Amino acid sequence: MYRLGQKEIDEVSKVIKAQKMFRVGDPKTGHLQEANRFEVEWAQTIGVKHALLLSGGGTAALMAGLAGMLADLRRIRARFVVELKGNPGIRFAPSNDPRGDCGVVVGFQFEREAAARAFAKAEGVGGGLPIDSGKHVYSNWDPILKHRVGHHPVMNPYRMPKNKGLRLNYTKNTCPRTLDILKRTVFISLHPDWTEAQISKRIAACRAAGAHG
Asked: Angle at the Cα of 113 (from 108 to 117), degrees rounded to 5?
């Protein structure tokens, strides 16, 4: 397990206390304002991580319960698969690592986006489409698509001379097959504390939605 040295801890603490990392740019261009925003957000992020690293006791307690949570999630996902496999209108999304699957979601795939949305919205299913998950989808990565990366133009890798000639241009349609799969997939988030009755109710809702699809 990696441990921070005292020197690193002191440096991070100084950043958190000052809430300031750097200042660059010309106030007239707006770069300074962007830098200020970046400083605050980054310092707050470091603050959260710093607190987690220093609260070893709390982290240890959380880790102790992780195995049980994973076991419950995997058990629940396995029930969905066993009880729904082969049912009309039900096709599970492929898992490339079944043994390593944490079971946080159970995924279904459909031939058309309309069918996926109808299934997700069916009574009691409570599903969602990964295409609607915002920044998890590359087509919503505005900094990459617009070549606006970094807190200052000088630090923007898209403007660096050494990167000229590389494949830098991406569009919302660069990976159409990926987008198509995301539009036809439904995820249902699972919860380790669900009772057997709650699991049965959700499975029944999926079975009914599949049959009506």
From this structure: 70
